[in-house]
Amino acid sequence: MGIRVAIIGAGMSGLCMAAKLQDAGIEDFTVFEKADEVGGTWRDNTYPGLACDVPSRYYAYSFRPNPEWSHMMPPGPEVFRYFRQFATERGIRRHIRFGADVTAARFRDGKWWLTSPAGVEEFDVLVTATGFLRVPRYPDILGLDTFTGPMFHSSRWDHSVSLSDKRIGLIGTGSTGVQITSALGGNVRHLKVFQRTPQWICPWPNLRVSEHTKAAMRRWTWLNSFGYWFWGGFVRSIFGVAPVRPGWQRWLYQTQCHWNLRLSVRDKELKKKLTPPDQPMCKRMIFAGHYYRTVQRPDVEIVTDPIVEVQPRGVVTADGTLHEVDLLALATGFDFHAYVRPLTITGEHGRTLDDAWADGPTAYRAVAVPGFPNMFMLMGPHAPVGNNSLVPVAEDQADYVMWWIDQLRSGRIVSAAPTEAATKQYNDAMKAAMPRTVWTTGCRSWYLGKDGLPELFPWEASRYAELLRSPQVSDFDVRTAAV
Ligand code: N01
After folding, report:
1. Is the residue at 400 inside a domain?
2. Which of 138, 181, 196 to probe ligand 1 with, by most ligand atoms within 8 A of CB?
3. Alpha-carbon gap, residue 385 to 390, rounded angstroms
4. Under the GO molecular function aspect, what terms does this record hold (predicted)?
């Protein structure tokens, strides 16, 4: 049976899904992308110092190794290039409709009806691949809009503005703020970093890959596969475990963070300012090689007095100081809980995803929602985004979706959606497991949902892959043509 698939989003996950469809011989699919290029987060984020903090060999599709990575952890522009090249060489671009913002998707008469600038179109299966750190979060600071200099969010960096001659104010010290600080320190007139809460930093020198190594990787592809296997094992067995259960892996990371601060910062006052009040890994772990060195430069200052307001010339802190700056960069994170929104998705009986998620976003194994037949999400709620590379997660999810697409294609079934009971049972089990995770040890982080619990997968990263490899049909409300 022919099947028409709609994928929303041409980022890392959407491209992965497209490739899996092609591998299965399905060419009747459309990727809706509201921007004018593929790449998702790697297209939108271009801030100075942008890099991926996952080992490069493991931040690539398992089926498309990249011998060209220049560093152990790849710079952002290289990751962007990798996904652009992938879309081109796999012939996915002809399936992508750029500038196509899908505003509504509705399930009616057994089909998904998508509304985009091209009108309303009908599909058998809907796959959302809209990413989860996509909607910038602007800080709610009094007078922010009165600032007269250039001001932008880290994911909307304005490269037309010169930096070297400017006094820059940077708000936020998460992964993004730390990377920007490390890149700007010493390259701008002055940098003031407004830190609300210090974060632990795991020391990770980002070693360059030599030309000899690249040549060897090009010549012997098994070397790349070995790198994927090695780094995958490393990430899954250490980083994949450390946050979710106490043990030597957690001890290792936490000890590294404590010693990094202790050994890298001499000045007692500054050390105090940089000492987080919470446990390492409670917030998303930050990996950085020379952040502490940068903040000890004379032209870099960490401001810890709380921000009271922004005035036309700068930032006023609680001690009454006006910190004059020429440019304000907001590294204040993203709305993690948006998922597909503002797109309106309406399932059976006119029930929208917003209705289904009134108490917070939930899903069955992070990929499907009761009442939304033949709709699958990549990187949906509670995906293992806090303890794994997202690329293998997307691959596992896309394989899972393909399993259901095969059932539909064979004609054995006409629709499938997880049952309320199975979804509840799965989410209850996750809730019960959360207290063992480091994410619940008392910190403010983007991981936390409305109920104060992390919207993450509370078990080892490898367990998630196992779950997806064994679809449980009995957990689904499956309809056949005869019904
Ligand atoms: O955002 P964040 P991010 N006044 O939410 C502060 C991924 N990522 O963009 O800690 C003052 O972590 C806020 O303070 P506090 C990665 O998964 C990956 O840095 O809430 N400050 C915090 O310091 C990461 O976790 C890579 O007290 C305010 C910061 O802004 C995720 O993206 C690279 C404020 C926000 O930190 C998000 O990281 C970069 C206010 N009103 C990012 N509001 C890779 O390498 C917020 N803050 C793959």
Report:
1. yes
2. 196
3. 6
4. oxidoreductase activity
